[in-house]
Specification:
single chain; 422 residues; mainly beta; six-stranded mixed beta sheet; 5 helices; 10% helix; 37% strand; globular
């Protein structure tokens, strides 16, 4: 993107496909990196940062991403490895792959899934063989303290088998894997940044997980032919023990997840809020939702025993459906209407807004978090009023990152562009 003064609030950068793919990957990472830091001078990578070595004389800017032996990258970031089931450590700006961290899939190079220690982490069947040997990692995010990355942990999802893995960032090894019950297609993942009640807990203690696909509950094949029995869940995992704390029964299918800086709110973009089975039913409504969770209220409900369990799972499940949460003063959830099929949701670095990338609408929806909290308090009449802007940015918006200077950068998968807007 050019730094030159722009005449309009939106600036699109024309680029070749290779450059677009690289930029989109960077933007996708910085959704969970730069978006969480409003200090321009602070490091924005989730892994420890090493200072860049001085460039030798004559090292042109065109070749500045091609580092010579002995030169270090400015930043190091964490990526998901897809069907390899691992996490990748890449250097920026070079794009070099520095390290692979095996998680969900065996890796003979380091003995992962072969040694007794790693098999214990991965999980085994009664005969000692691995329970799973395939995976599909999509998203990774790291732990926080004081609203910034603290270098303790990172988490990554396995969408195929509904698992979450934790990586210790002091050793860059996976030390825990948890299989989440009652769900299928775990996609969005994001750690909290603070406790919703205790201000002294200014670090990550929870990790939130959104299940993309609805399943019959309990999933024992008894109701496989009854679409009305199918639901998806929003899950809270304890950051230290890696045990599932609670789940929320919800309307729609979860896409990506975000958390507020004060710890009071978590959110997930929802598509198919119609709870349809066929395409024409799934696409019937003009609006879907960004679904907000009042974390403190949910945990109060769990403590009060206002939950149920499904099948063999002992995890408490509270009711977060729209029908059961009409009264804002007692509601656990809030469904903020946004255009159809939203994808990414990202927190602005000033902590004031969530930005929803609307995917099937050429817009980004700006939601003011103070107004969402006002609705929960009963001082805002309609939750729709929490939407303060719908910014037209281009076709197919997916993810938004921020530069800490008031600018947002959204990737557009149909326009094949990254758009800069203020």
């Amino acid at each position: 993107m050019s730094d030159k003064k722009q005449d309009s609030p939106i600036e699109t950068a024309g680029m070749g496909r290779r450059r677009f793919i690289n930029s989109a990957a960077l933007a996708g990472l910085t959704v969970g990196v730069a978006a969480c830091n409003d200090k321009p001078a602070a490091a924005t990578a989730s892994a420890p940062v090493a200072p860049a070595a001085s460039s030798p004389a004559g090292h042109s800017s065109a070749n500045s991403t091609h580092l010579k032996p002995g030169e270090l990258d400015t930043y190091y970031g964490l990526w998901s490895g897809g069907h390899t089931g691992d996490m990748r450590v890449l250097g920026l700006p070079s794009g070099r792959e520095i390290h692979r961290i095996p998680c969900f899939v065996p890796d003979a190079l380091v003995g992962w899934g072969i040694t007794n220690e790693s098999k214990k982490i991965m999980g085994t069947k009664a005969d000692g063989s691995l329970r799973y040997t395939v995976a599909d990692t999509h998203h990774t995010h790291a732990s926080y303290k004081d609203g910034n990355y603290d270098g303790r942990y990172a988490w990554i999802n396995d969408k195929i088998n509904s698992r979450i893995a934790r990586i210790r960032l002091d050793y860059f090894v996976c030390d825990k894997i948890t299989e989440i019950p009652n769900i299928q297609g775990f996609h969005g993942i994001f750690p909290d940044k603070a406790d919703p009640v205790d201000p002294k807990i200014n670090y990550t203690t929870r990790v939130f997980c959104g299940a993309e696909f609805a399943i019959p509950l309990p999933n024992n094949a008894a109701d496989a032919d009854k679409p009305e029995k199918y639901r998806s869940m929003f899950t809270c995992v304890d950051a230290e023990s890696m045990e599932v704390r609670w789940q929320v029964l919800i309307d729609g299918n979860c896409d990506l997840t975000a958390t507020s800086y004060d710890g009071k709110l978590a959110a997930v973009n929802q598509y198919n809020t119609e709870m349809g089975v066929k395409y024409e039913d799934m696409m019937a409504a003009e609006k879907d939702a960004c679904l907000f969770f009042n974390v403190a209220r949910i945990e109060e409900a769990v403590k009060a025993g206002k939950f149920k369990t499904y099948g063999d799972s002992k995890v408490p499940v509270v009711d977060g459906t729209k029908e059961s949460n009409k009264d804002p003063k007692t509601a656990l959830t809030a469904y903020v209407p946004v255009p159809k099929n939203p994808h990414g949701v990202n927190a602005s670095p000033d902590g004031k807004y969530f930005i929803c990338a609307d995917k099937l609408s050429p817009t980004g929806t700006v939601i003011e978090l103070a107004k969402v909290l006002a609705w929960f308090d009963g001082s805002l009449e309609k939750i729709d009023a929490a939407v303060v802007a719908d910014v037209e940015i281009g076709l197919g918006p997916l993810h938004t990152a921020f530069d800490g200077r008031g600018n947002a950068y959204t990737t557009l998968f149909l326009d094949s562009q990254v758009v800069k807007w203020n």
